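Case 700 in the screening queue. Each case pairs one protein sequence with one candidate compound; here the compound is dioxothiomolybdenum(VI) ion. For every case the pipeline is the same: read the inputs, emit a complex structure as tokens, and attach any notable structural observations.

Predict complex for case 700.
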Amino acid sequence: MSAPAGVIGRPQPRVEGRDKVTGAARYAVEHPADGTAYGWAVQATVAKGRIVRIDATEAERESGVLAVLTFETAPRLNPTGSPELLLLQQPRVRYRGEIVALVVAESLEAAREGARLVRIDYDTEPHSSVLTERHPSLYTPERVNPAYPTDTSVGDFDSGYQAAEVRLDQTYRTPAYHNNPMEPHAATAHWADGRLLVRDSSQGTTDVRGDLGSLFELPTGAVRVTAEHVGGGFGSKGTTRCTPVLAAMAARQVGRPVRLALTRQQLFGPIGYRTPIIQRVRLGADADGRLAAICHDAISQTSTSIEFAEQTAVLTRALYAAPHRRTTHRLARLDVPTPSWMRAPGECPGSFALECAMDELAVACGVDPVELRLRNDTDVDPEEGVPFTSRNLAACLREGAERFGWARRDPAPGVRRDGRWLVGTGMASAIYPARTPGATAEAVAEPDGTYRVRINATDIGTGARTALWQVAVDALGVPGDRVAVSIGDSDLPPAYVAGGSMGTAGWGLAVHRACEGLRRQLDGEYAGSAPPDGLAVRVDTMEETTALPTAPRYSFGAHFVEARVDVDSGEIRVPRMLGVFAVGRVVNPTTARSQLIGGMTMGLSMALHEEGVLDQRFGDWVNRDLAGYHVSVCADVETMEAYWVPDEDRGNPLGIKGMGEIGIVGSAAAVANAVHHATGLRLRTLPIQLDELVDRLPTG
Ligand code: MOS
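Case 700 output:
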């Protein structure tokens, strides 16, 4: 039996680990069901225009094809739904790759062949799909995600900047990034007894249930969405995507369960992506590198369907002190799929620009980059003037420098050689908001002496189920093998999506409160007697979380990277990445480390590999699989270390901050800064690839 209490903070393997490695864990399209049919999506081949004719006769004649859903034949959806989800309702095409038909068949092969046979004629219109600084459609959104002011200003940036001894004004560019979770976006839908049942690959089924209920005009009780196991999401499954909607439409049409899984290629666009971004950063400082003025201007894109306003410059509002400051966001409305969430939306690309600029300032002032960050550290939020709940950035910087061996660093760029390799080191800071959303949870004392915790949290591969089990075991004070956690089902008490690094903090609090309440009843009213069968305590922490202190609350971190660049070929290797983080109370060190190094790996990938290459002529990405769109693989990742510092923070009752995203924040900048230190070349456009370096390196 496991220890009765104190499992929080102890390394724990995933409670569903055995199911996952034995294949017993089932994902969205892996549940067997009699009479299952298969869907295959047909995508538009023009970037903008109108379907003038869809001919499905040949497809319908194909053996095994059951139905071809088009804007003319698909079930009607409630027109008040999000334009993104009103699929197959009208003939307009808003981007190349938009799903314009769905073929449903007895087998996947027949559905695929049917899809090939659907003939579509379009009236095409001129399109614009490439983001530029002066794009004619640029506008100022009312807010940026999730609800931040678009622009902020404190002091007088222009005069503060003009008066500064050292001034830096640079522009940084990042391309489109595509989420590539192992499990693609997929759903199985089934209508039975007037109820719609969907198994979805989603970060939060409470919202999916709500969207489906509204689109199909069904009462809440008539829709159930489950996501028992999810093979990654990174934000791309954080809002309702096309898959559950199309699967539900198809299942209604053919009167059978329908499975729909997008192909790897179909993920590049229809599910969302991180917008390309153009960022201008201006820093004004004294000769010792103390900032007087910071300005961060970000330009990104949205679509013609809905607005998505990436909060790129928001981190600059809180990271460093400076009396004069400004941040702005502008959006271009393009004929592209709507951008969406991708791990640390805003902070991730924003930190690439800000932390590269800080490195450039360090060089300009002749100040060590770690020392530069320490000099500009602040106890109060620099825009609000209010103290942070906790701010252990300096501890991360110092401990990271110590563990990495930063003190031995020669500041001069481009001077160290190890045979053919130019060797350099770089660093960057990280910041990510620590939020605690409200949730509902229920703790049940089962008649057999076990306990069940019920909450519609989702484990997208992070270890959420295990962390919640740890919280429950400690609050109930019973042996761990008597506690089971049920998650991933919209019939459970509703909870927020797995997103924004909020799961362990928000769901954890609700689970803690429910278990605490049950424990109190068992120790009070039912002390010494058997509780009634199924005694349950249900809590809603909304009131408690809205009443939490409003002081600025963030996780912090510091990245340290060694980069090596081949002097002849320009090949870049990163033999070592090290991060130290202040992330509040760590519930499960095993899965916490995985989250942090996973984020860092994604940052490495962003710095050196990932790039959605869009061809303006046809308005779509030319690389749309893992052969053309490179992500870091094991061979790219060498030594990867993640640590955390003590970070007492009572900004929520459990002291938990969350760590799903902070690992990616700043990591790409640290790589770029290390490449600069190795080569003396400053690359401000990601990814950094050998063709950018090869002609400019000193000859070997
Ligand atoms: Mo994450 S991008 O907040 O799901």
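Case 700 observations:
- The chain has a mean pLDDT of 97.
- The first helix runs from residue 17 to 22.
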